[in-house]
Amino acid sequence: MKLLFFNASIIEQRLIAEWSATHGVSVKTVAAPLSHDNIALTHGYDALIFYPSRAFQTDATLYQQLAQNGIKQLSIKSTGYDNINLMYAQHYQLTVTNVPNYSPESVAHFTIMSILMLLRQLPEQLRTAHTVSRQHLIGKELTDVTVGIYGAGRLGSLVAKTLHVMGARVLFYARTPKPALTALGLTQVSFETLLTASDVLSIHVPLNETTYHRFNAVTLGKMKDDAILINTARGSVIDTAALIRYVRQGKFSGLALDALENEDTQGFQTNPYYQALQAFENVILTPHIAYYTSAAVRDIVMTALDNAYDVISTGISDNVVLN
């Protein structure tokens, strides 16, 4: 069995070495991400562990060359696999796996931290630390606001339950009933009610055809003018151009965005959306780091390697999204 791990950081390389010693399998690491420039390196390997660039959405030749080089499996080292074209992968008989669960506490705690920072207007407080008058920066307490959770999967549910324990009134939207949450006193509502009733709204859904630009000019316009919006999911769930127009008009008392549209093709700081948003004092922008803790990185690396090992050795994995 020959495994190849792309875009391996120093931290990941240590974890890969640990996994290799435990399983008796050699894993070759490459520091760079997988692209046409280095795809020849995949020749002779059975499986790849990598995070796909946006080119994998539309470029069938990437899949063709991987199959020709002997690759049988693509182990995606993330939960989201929206950059993978499943039709191309199926055509070239490439099994695809993902990492559906990893330290949900990492993103949940980051989300709650962001909410508290914006309720207390901390970004502006820090920028004006020596200002004598702070009357305009008076904060709100979590117990005085209604928090809406869009998406009540494992992560969204954890955020919702934690905020409930902390004293917030919590509403949530999910496609199916969530009796375990309502039994705790949380309220399941329609998407329309979530938009209009939430003082704080936090997004926790994958990116797909249904969620793409779910928060657009129409739906964003229905939110309270002084609402706080948090996104630690996928950038394209929000129509960012529409969001920027609203912020320029004075809508929203705060934003915390850990994901932006086009961040994987344009980088983060060179992204025009980033450049526009960073000018506003009530906006927190972070480069997709909500998950980034030692526990989460360990879970991701170990699960991605386990997925590759399972598929190549047995033909199956608990985390197959395409076989």
TrEMBL record:
<feature type="domain" description="D-isomer specific 2-hydroxyacid dehydrogenase NAD-binding">
    <location>
        <begin position="113"/>
        <end position="290"/>
    </location>
</feature>
<dbReference type="GO" id="GO:0008720">
    <property type="term" value="F:D-lactate dehydrogenase (NAD+) activity"/>
</dbReference>
<dbReference type="Pfam" id="PF02826">
    <property type="entry name" value="2-Hacid_dh_C"/>
</dbReference>
<comment type="similarity">
    <text>Belongs to the D-isomer specific 2-hydroxyacid dehydrogenase family.</text>
</comment>
<keyword id="KW-0520">NAD</keyword>
<keyword id="KW-0560">Oxidoreductase</keyword>
<dbReference type="InterPro" id="IPR006140">
    <property type="entry name" value="D-isomer_DH_NAD-bd"/>
</dbReference>
<feature type="domain" description="D-isomer specific 2-hydroxyacid dehydrogenase catalytic">
    <location>
        <begin position="18"/>
        <end position="321"/>
    </location>
</feature>
<dbReference type="InterPro" id="IPR036291">
    <property type="entry name" value="NAD(P)-bd_dom_sf"/>
</dbReference>
<protein>
    <submittedName>
        <fullName>D-2-hydroxyacid dehydrogenase</fullName>
    </submittedName>
</protein>
<dbReference type="InterPro" id="IPR058205">
    <property type="entry name" value="D-LDH-like"/>
</dbReference>
<dbReference type="GO" id="GO:0051287">
    <property type="term" value="F:NAD binding"/>
</dbReference>
<dbReference type="InterPro" id="IPR029753">
    <property type="entry name" value="D-isomer_DH_CS"/>
</dbReference>
<dbReference type="InterPro" id="IPR006139">
    <property type="entry name" value="D-isomer_2_OHA_DH_cat_dom"/>
</dbReference>
<dbReference type="Pfam" id="PF00389">
    <property type="entry name" value="2-Hacid_dh"/>
</dbReference>
